[in-house]
Amino acid sequence: MTVDPSATGSPGFLAHLSPLAKLAAPLPAMIVLVVARDLVTPLTFLALAYLLLLVGRRMSWRVAALLFVGLPIGAAIMGLALGLWVDAALVDDTPAVLRVGAWTLHAGAVEVGLATGARLAAILALGLIAGLTTTGPDLVRASVQQLRVPYRIGYAALAAIRFVPRFAYELELIRQAHRVRGAHGGRGPFAAVARGAGYVVPLLAGAIRHAERVALAMDARAFGAHPDRTERYLLPWRRRDTVFVLAFWAVSAATLAALFPWGL
């Protein structure tokens, strides 16, 4: 496997799989979760996604905070909020949880809302299997090499992905320069707006310069002149990718057969 020196993914067995395998494996489960209506099925797939991320990726504190604090709290808040929109006539045979005047919140509405929040959290967690273990350039290269995406589209997207860290770097330089010069100092909302407005023009000028350099570099390398190009970094589809996809599909099918969420 050729290693991209610009890749920043944490080590782990998931980092050594093809990006397309990590997208294809959870895709059927994500589609099924859209139509599942129970609470147990999304929680099961949520636990499966967490297990894979814990075992297959070295966990940083930011990722741990996202998975174990941000995602559960967000899903719970969203689930409770969605429960308020459930038609009371559909769940009026369940116990009342809260009464405010003539309005009643039933336990069935809370369960439906939490099930919806759990589905969204499970879909997001399954997507994070690829999102947290794959870099954007690797995904583009795998799509060009394996899915035969035209390299004109793929590498144009790759160039756009490279703009993001470049803009972050230039924005930090502009902030440091403004602090050194004492421009737009002070506190409060007006000072923050003034500082933000002062970043726009130099950041736009830097973006234009960077875009011109990228365009000249692509022209110098005859980008788009030929139907295909040679690849420096190869991301082949290996046997372990096939095993991972088939194993995930088998576990997903067994889980759905055991729970059968459509019968609820």
UniProtKB/TrEMBL annotation:
| Main location, first listed in the record | membrane
| Topological type in the membrane | Multi-pass membrane protein
Per its UniProt record, what PANTHER family does this chain match? PROTEIN ABCI12, CHLOROPLASTIC
What are the subcellular locations of this protein? Membrane
Q: Which InterPro entries match?
A: ABC/ECF_trnsptr_transmembrane
Q: Which UniProt keywords apply?
A: Membrane, Transmembrane, Transmembrane helix
Please give the organism: Microbacterium aquilitoris
| Protein name (Swiss-Prot/TrEMBL) | Energy-coupling factor transporter transmembrane component T
Q: Where are the transmembrane segments?
A: 27-53, 65-86, 106-132, 242-262
Pfam families assigned to the protein according to its UniProt record, in alphabetical order: CbiQ
